[in-house]
Amino acid sequence: MDLADYIQLSQQQPVLQAIVIGGYAVAAHGHTRATFDVDLMVRGADREAWLERLGGAGLNLVAQASSFAQFSSSSGGEGLDLLFVNNSTFDRIWQASEERDFGSARARIPCLDHLLALNQHSLKHGLPHRTAKDAEDIEILVRRNSVNMHEPRYEQLFLKYGTREIYETFLRLLREG
Questions:
Q1: Which of 120, 165, 126, 122 lies closest to 142 in space, CA to CA?
Q2: For a tag site, which of 16, 47, 74, 107 has the least CB within 10 Å?
Q3: Where is the domain boundary, 83, 110, 137?
């Protein structure tokens, strides 16, 4: 299965709203990089419906915790990671999201600010397998989208979802680069 297949699964009746995040969202905002799975943000309240739908589609649940579930497809293709968030978080990101074409399917991606916030949140938690990728995503997204890091809204965004140290590191990095 691939991204378009997962989008089409979400759009079956009843529709399970999903926002494409991760590598595909980063690419849609101007930084194409290798990605080995599909990442979707979904409502935590829809968890059981997602598990049932994906199981019915032949996907295998590989791992899960309260905030995520990972699936693989026995028919090959890309795996799927679901990020479960509360309704207010989902609604806020959905309202500001943008619709994009992904081959034969259309789906929503976070606006640039929300995508930067998601990457900072991940970077802040310092998962070793994510740190370099998230830092590179932030740097290139800021550069390609001509983000003025000195605008108060970006400082506030970095301080809310990242840390002062992360914000100042990116200010230095972007000034030197």
A1: 120
A2: 74
A3: 110
| Same domain flag for 84 and 155 | no
Same domain, 44 and 122: no
List strands edge to edge, sheet with 59-64: 59-64, 68-73, 79-85, 37-43, 18-21, 105-109, 98-102
Both 94 and 153 in a single domain? no
Closest CA to 166 of 128, 116, 129: 116
Q: How many CA atoms lie within 13 A of 119 on its CB side?
A: 27
Helix or strand or coil: residue 60? strand
Domain limits for position 161: 111-177
User: What per-residue confidence (pLDDT) applies to 76?
Assistant: 79
**Mean pLDDT, 10 residues at a time, the chain of 177 residues:** 94 97 94 88 98 96 96 88 97 98 95 96 80 90 95 96 93 83
Tokens found for residue 52? 């049932």
Domain end position, chosen among 110, 138, 159:
110
**φ, ψ dihedrals at 11, nearest 5°:** -90, 0
Instruction: Give the chain's domain count.
Output: 2
DSSP notation for 89-112: HHHHHHHH-EEEEETTEEEEE--H
For residues 99 and 147, state if they share a domain.
no
Paired sense of beta strands 98-102 and 105-109, if any: antiparallel
